[in-house]
Specification:
The chain is of the alpha/beta class. It is 30% helix and 20% strand. It has a 9-stranded parallel β-sheet with strand order 12-11-10-9-5-2-1-14-13. Strands 18-17-20-21 form a 4-stranded antiparallel β-sheet, with no helix packed on it. A 3-stranded antiparallel β-sheet has the order 6-8-7. A hairpin with a 2-residue loop joins strand 7 and strand 8. Helix 6 runs parallel beside helix 8. It is globular. The termini are far apart. The N terminus is likely disordered.
């Protein structure tokens, strides 16, 4: 209650410039990149070699733009409605990339995006739509390849849409098989479950027969929540056995439950669609929660407090509705979004995710510029996953610098070999020392090579100090290297 009561005063002070911008050294800056219907990518199918190249260039241009604004995480929609965007022996490839179900566009979109994200120092998390498998039109188009056709006993039709029924044990087996294939075959940094819930108007969901068969005298609401809880636990435990660095997260409804400040909260995760993300965090079966908080004012600020209070040491990232800036989707003001970033930073959030990518890339109402030039002015490291592994890598040797035409070439020896690849953070300053505790000192982070180029004008006359550190896939950072000082001049000195 205290936090929400202070928000108006807090924002007034910020608005009057009483608070300078805060630049966290560690912060998640994520984009939901939507592939269903090609909403964010691709904007056209690849029907030949030329269009395949253009399709790949399109995503590279988007990723370049996100990198320039210092985003560090992409949630790529990999499973849509019973179809996927990668090579699978279980489900059909979506038609969005090639124009035909079951046909890849001459390359594997997931493998390609993972590689391109990693080149740019960004993580790639697989955004996985869990229970929905399509409306009547989609199911008809998919035909014999559809989940409904192949597994009719697992599926229910509800309000014109088809869903895997969470109450049938075979549903968990089926989803687990998809996760196992995905995690085994691809170098994803995380998997995020979307629609991991019962659908809208859940009270009418046709599972009464299944409830009678498997309910074990639980009340319906608890039974439904437990169906999802068991699946979450099984998937999390398996992933941590095979690839413990792969982060498990979900995007539940933006309001966890009805709270004292907002007793008439309306649609909530716990009461309305039988999600229990608090339990997932409390029992250690999630690494991160990214609720879809696409609301304003009293429907946003108190629920940040609610989520941070139920994070249990894991990561809470606020999902922000950038699409609400569109006139037809709410016509929000830019300050509606930036106020939410401010509040989330001030009260315990570990970052923000934006839905959708296109709204960011298109600079809707100036949001991209505001993020790039102010809120995300400097790069940020990802928060450490200490509950998974807290081993500190060895300190790299100091940076070597050579002058080449138009830039400085920075290189260093790899850190001591560990069981998993390392990434590097390069710090710099234009003085004879560099502070590694400040975001302002980060030149680049998430670097997977031991080489980096810093553009410098030929006429530049200044000194630079560089340091480099190594980080594990759990985002545990080493001590920084010794300082390297290099003076840039067009004259020999």
């Amino acid at each position: 209650m205290r936090k929400y009561g202070l928000i108006l005063l807090l924002l007034v002070f910020w608005g009057n410039g009483a608070f300078a911008f805060s630049y966290p050294k560690q912060e998640i800056r994520a984009i939901w990149l939507t592939t269903i219907y090609g909403l964010d990518w691709p904007s056209f199918p690849a029907i030949n070699e030329a269009s395949r190249i253009r399709q790949q260039e399109e995503i590279c241009n988007l990723l370049d733009r996100f990198q320039e604004a210092h985003f560090n995480m992409i949630f790529l929609q990999v499973r849509l409605r019973g179809d996927v965007i990668y090579h699978s022996s279980i489900e059909s490839v979506s038609k969005v990339f090639s124009g035909k179900y079951g046909v890849l566009p001459g390359y594997d979109p997931l493998a390609f995006v993972i590689e391109e994200c990693h080149k740019r120092g960004m993580e790639c998390h697989a955004w996985f739509v869990t229970f929905p498998v399509g409306n009547d039109k989609i199911v008809k188009e998919q035909g014999k390849q559809s989940v409904v056709h192949r597994y009719p006993k697992l599926c229910k039709r509800h309000n014109g849409e088809w869903y895997l029924d969470p109450g049938i044990p075979g549903t968990t087996d089926y989803i687990f098989s998809l996760v196992r294939e995905l995690v085994t075959n691809y170098d994803i940094d995380g998997i995020q479950f979307d629609y991991i819930r019962y659908p809208e108007e859940a009270k009418k969901f046709p599972d009464s027969r299944v409830y009678r068969q498997y309910g074990n005298q639980q009340n319906l609401a608890d039974w439904r929540r437990e169906n999802i809880n068991r699946m979450v636990e099984r998937i999390y435990d398996w992933i941590k056995q095979v690839k413990p660095w792969v982060q498990v997260s979900s995007s539940p409804l933006g309001k966890y439950s009805r709270i004292e400040q907002v007793p008439n909260a309306g649609w909530t995760a716990y009461e309305s669609v039988f999600q229990d993300p608090k339990k997932w965090m409390q029992s250690g079966k999630h690494d991160m929660i990214v609720p879809m908080m696409y609301y304003l004012h009293k429907d946003y600020f108190p629920f940040v407090d609610n989520w941070t209070g139920n994070a249990y040491g894991r990561i809470f990232v606020s999902g922000l509705g950038a699409y609400r800036l569109l006139k037809e989707e709410g016509d929000w003001a830019l300050t509606d979004i930036t106020d939410q970033i401010d509040y989330t930073r001030a009260y315990g959030g570990k970052g923000c995710a934006f839905f959708r990518g296109k709204m960011i890339a298109d600079n809707c109402k100036g949001l991209y510029d505001e993020l790039k030039n102010n809120y995300y002015k400097y790069p940020a490291q990802l928060p450490p996953l200490t509950w998974l592994n807290d081993s500190v890598p060895s300190t790299p040797e100091e940076v070597k610098v050579t002058r080449e035409e138009g830039h400085l070439r920075l290189f260093w020896a790899p850190s001591q070999v560990m069981s998993q690849p390392l990434t590097y953070t390069v710090y710099y300053s234009q003085s004879d020392s560099v502070r590694t505790d400040l975001a302002e000192s980060i030149l680049a982070t998430g670097v997977r090579d031991t080489l980096l180029y810093l553009p410098v004008p030929d006429s530049l006359e200044t000194g630079f100090t560089f340091r480099v550190s190594a980080s594990t896939r759990y985002h545990i950072e080493s001590k920084p290297s010794k300082e390297t000082y290099y003076y840039v001049s067009k004259f020999i000195k």
